[in-house]
Structures are given as C-alpha cells and as structure tokens.
Amino acid sequence: MTLKAIPDHIGEGLTVLFVGFNPSIRSGESGHHYANPRNRFWNILHQAGLTPRLYKPEEDGELLQLGYGFTNIVSRPTATAAEISKDEYKQGRVILKKKLERFRPKVACFVGKGVYEQYSGRRKDIPWGVQEEPVVPGIVEFVCPSSSGLVRMKIEEIVELFRGLGVYTRLKD
C-alpha cells in the first residue's frame, strides 16, 4: 500500500513553520502531522508553553490560528527516516527552500538536527537553537531535537530547547 503525502499547513504570516523529516506511517494513514502515538511533539509544544492546551494530531490545522504551520523536507510517509533516499532529500531541499522563500515565516523550526543537516548541507557544529547563517536570509532557522520517541534525550531537555521558540511566538509567559 502506497500512502499519500499529508498536506502542509502553511500560509502567509506564520510565526513558526515546523519542519520534520517526513510523515510517519501513522501520519500517512491519518493525514495529520506527528500522529504516531510514540511521537512526543504535541506534549512538548504544550510543556514548552507554546500552546495554551495539549493539542491532538487531528487538530494540527487549528494551530495555524496560533501562527504555527507544518511541513516536511520529504513528503513520502515511511516507517523511519533511514528509508528516505538521497534523491528525495535533494528534491525536498529545493522544494522546502522555495516554500520558505514564498511564505516567509518568522522562524523555520527544524524538528531534528538531521533535518537541518539535510536542508542546509551543513554537517559540523550545528548548535541547538538559532543558526547564525540562515540559508534563506531574513528567516530565523531554529534547530530543536526530534520529538520521536526514539530520541534518547530526556523529555525535560527537549522541552527546554523548544521553549527557546517562545521569544518569537504570540503566547508569551
């Protein structure tokens, strides 16, 4: 069974565009971002103070009202990012750059250092948080850990890094 890409939630005037590797199988089946029950994305956003309540994957489109959008560097759903080919990353990098240039979010938040590596072509010394030399000038490129349940970082550490987005968002402490 071939799963379809899930739709981007994107538009003009976004505060943060979250960029993932690609949809999970569960996201491909449901049509919603970060739908795998082992993915901690929605919990992380809420714990970081970026959402007023805990959202569910099927509410992903509602976050546009908060100024948040969603896309992926590769649109094809897979079980793991290891299944993504070099050609898919190469094409995805070009498509993503065009999306950023067109929609101009204030912040592009890469959910996973590997996503940013694939997008930017940089491999060394990528810090968490704001990147000094954005690929698209005028857009803050912000790197956070992946929210996948496979990531071995403590949830508190991941939440703290996501909390750094708070200076750009409408929901402030």
UniProtKB/TrEMBL annotation:
Keyword Glycoprotein: no
InterPro entries attached to this UniProt entry: MUG/TDG (IPR015637), Uracil-DNA_glycosylase-like (IPR005122), Uracil-DNA_glycosylase-like_sf (IPR036895)
Pfam annotation, one family: UDG
Enzyme Commission number(s) from the entry: 3.2.2.-
Annotated protein name in UniProt: TDG/mug DNA glycosylase family protein
Keyword Disulfide bond (UniProt): no
Residue ranges annotated for the Uracil-DNA glycosylase-like domain, each copy included: 10-154
UniProt-recorded Gene Ontology molecular function terms: hydrolase activity, acting on glycosyl bonds
Species for this entry: Paenibacillus eucommiae
Keyword line: DNA damage, DNA repair, Glycosidase, Hydrolase
